[in-house]
Amino acid sequence: MRLGILSDTHDQLERTRRAIDLLRSDGAEALIHCGDIMGPDVLEACTVLPCSFVFGNNDDDISALRQMANLTGANCMDWGSIITLAGKRIGVTHGHMSVDVRRLLAQQPDYLFSGHSHIPMDQQEGTVRRINPGALHRAVEFTVALLEVESGELRFLTVPR
């Protein structure tokens, strides 16, 4: 399964659409958004594929995001949770609250996705592979990530300005 990972879209609707088009053209079958969505229109754009998401520190209108999730079928993971895709346990949180990161790491998922820093990252922490796809706002380079869940092959993709 190819999984598109994005974060920190900060209500950048057109840039988010370009990022999703890029991920889809490279074979993404589902999307995970690591928070700081901000507007329900951005969340709706993500639902062109099966989509799961968490809230970030800039997501002020959580009720609007929940409402859009209910309308579109997006999977709201609140402030962080673990899901299973392609036989792998995947933790997702925004990353701004160390308590959420520690709680998910303690459950030892195969992967832990987070955003917040606006910096792409791929590192192993014990048995958990931590991935940050970067950001689509306030970043030197706008990036998303594409993960082949079973094999672990990861690519960072640059989204045109």
Which helices and strands appear, and what pairs or packs with what?
Elements: E1 2-6, H1 13-25, E2 30-33, H2 40-46, E3 51-53, H3 62-72, E4 75-76, E5 80-85, E6 88-93, H4 98-106, E7 111-113, E8 121-125, E9 128-132, E10 143-148, E11 154-158
Parallel strand pairs: 1-2, 2-3, 3-4, 6-7, 7-9
Antiparallel strand pairs: 1-10, 5-6, 8-9, 10-11
Helix pairs in contact: 1-2, 2-3
Structure write-up:
With 161 residues, this protein is an alpha/beta fold. It has one domain (2-158): 4-Layer Sandwich (Purple Acid Phosphatase, chain A, domain 2), CATH 3.60.21. Helices cover 25% and strands 31% of the residues. It is built from 4 helices and 11 strands. The protein has helices at residues 13-25, 40-46, 62-72, 98-106; strands at residues 2-6, 30-33, 51-53, 75-76, 80-85, 88-93, 111-113, 121-125, 128-132, 143-148, 154-158. Strands 4-3-2-1-10-11 form a 6-stranded mixed β-sheet, covered by helices on one side. Strands 5-6-7-9-8 form a 5-stranded mixed β-sheet, with helices on one face. α1 (13-25) packs parallel to α2 (40-46) and α2 packs parallel to α3. It is globular. The chain starts with a strand and ends with a strand.
Distance between the termini: 28 Å
CATH-defined architecture:
4-Layer Sandwich
Query: Judging from the principal axes of the Cα atoms, what is the shape?
Result: globular
Side by side, the strands of the main sheet go 4-3-2-1-10-11
In brief, what are we looking at here?
The protein has 161 residues and is of the alpha/beta class. The chain contains four helices and eleven strands; from the N terminus they run βαβαβαβββαβββββ.
